[in-house]
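Quick note —
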Amino acid sequence: MRFAFPAIWLVLISGCVKAPITGRADPFLPPQVSIADADLANSTAFGPPRMERTDGILYVSVPVRSASDYDLHVDYRYSFFNQAGMPIDETGWIGGTTITRNSYTYIKFNSANANAADWHLQLRYAQ
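Predicted structure written out below.
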């Protein structure tokens, strides 16, 4: 009888313990090109990006054109990632790029070292 009370007490206390709150996995993987504004997204059209590795350095060229009747003035920034998906090279916003209407403009950039395995490009209207 003297062990019955602690056993009942343990059963009651264990029912009060809640599982920890954990973060959920993001169901959306980021695309290689993302655009900061919905209007800019609707006003641009992208061709397939081209990548080339020369002497270990990854060179990227992204063709983009204005799908509207106007030239677009944009800023862009890019990041490179290693095999594990960790960022290894990031830039600030690079301004002064004009995307012309009805013909492709090529946004070109390259990695700083040979560890780059993937990349991400962001565009926004010029600030």
